[in-house]
Amino acid sequence: MVEDYRERGIVCGRDVLEIRHYYLWGSKKVPYRSIVGVQRVALSALMGRGRIWGTANPGYWANLDTKRTSKKEGLVLDLGKRVRPFITPDDLERVETLIRERAGLGPAGPTVSAPFI
User: Strands 10-13 and 16-23: what pairing?
Assistant: First the structure.
């Protein structure tokens, strides 16, 4: 897989976004063509920042990120399914730009408050 971005929890390849440590047993590989939206969200204690892995809200799922407690923003991916992945990449700007370009999405909208995760 050709990579344009790699960190402990996220790998942006040419055709696939790999969300590492998503499942207990491994990664979730998301083809960019299956991403119908991405929303930047502001984190707070109960709204994503305190969630290291998993969820308390069945509509979202956060991959394992032990540094999430110190991060200010994250991304919610809309895959057109009931559960939306919630990620907090170290270089949020770069990852959001790559996702938007490769998924054929328009420009970013305003940052909104994160959902209860």
Answer: antiparallel
